[in-house]
Design brief:
This protein is mainly alpha-helical. Helices cover 72% and strands 0% of the residues. α1 runs parallel beside α4 and α3 runs antiparallel to α4. The N and C termini lie far apart (48 Å).
């Protein structure tokens, strides 16, 4: 039998790997993925994965007396942030002062 802390760490690492793999795929194929439709789909899929993953992680963390990051941070933060950028109106990026304000 494995300790709960080892199982929890395994899941953290697994979701981190999935998050980084998805993010790298999007960065390597920017032309293919840089449309709002894909961004909305990605947000939906990431949300489903986070909801599915959060319940067992939360249960394990509570057994250890630890707190999990809130669902606002999620288990796929890079993927979620990339999806947020994809669904932005692309005309926002034409105004240089607005870009500096949004992305300091």
């Amino acid at each position: 039998q494995l300790y709960d802390s080892i199982i929890l760490q395994f899941y953290y690492q697994l979701y981190h790997f999935v998050d980084c793999t998805l993010f790298n795929e999007m960065m390597q194929n920017v032309i293919k993925h840089s449309i709002a439709e894909r961004g909305f789909y990605l947000k939906l899929v990431a949300s489903e994965i986070e909801t599915w993953a959060y319940a067992p992680l939360s249960k394990k963390a509570k057994a250890l007396g630890k707190d999990l990051p809130s669902l606002q941070i999620g288990v796929l933060p890079h993927t979620a942030q990339t999806a947020n950028v994809l669904v932005l109106d692309k005309y926002l990026f034409t105004d240089e002062s607005l870009v500096k304000e949004l992305f300091p």
